[in-house]
Amino acid sequence: MRTTKRPGLPATRGRHGNGGTAVTYRVTVEDGFAGVVRIAHLLDTPRCRVTALDVRRIGASNTWIVDYDICGTDHEQQNLSKRVERLPGVSKIELLPTHC
Description:
Number of helices: 2
Shape: globular
Oligomer: single chain
Number of domains: 1
Radius of gyration: 13 Å
Structural class: alpha+beta
Largest sheet: 6 strands, antiparallel
CATH topology: Alpha-Beta Plaits
Helix content: 10-25%
Distance between the termini: 23 Å
CATH architecture: 2-Layer Sandwich
C-alpha cells in the first residue's frame, strides 16, 4: 500500500480554517489502471484539496480501490464525488467514516 501526500497540506480530518471539512472517499474502479488515472486527473482541482491518495489493486483482477482524503465545503465535496461517479469504470463510491 502506498500513500502519497501533497507537500504542505495537512493530512488531518475534522474542521479546517477555510470553513470546509476533510473527508475520505473510497472508489471501486473496474477498468484497470486507466480508470485510476482518470480519477487522479479529476482530483487535481483547486476547489477541493486532496490531502492523501491511496491506490491498490484487488488480487489478480482488473479491479482497483482508490481512497482519497479531500478538504472543502460539503457542496464542493458532493460535486466532486458526483463527477467521479460519472467516470467510466467507476462501479462504486462511498464516504468512509472519519475519526477525528
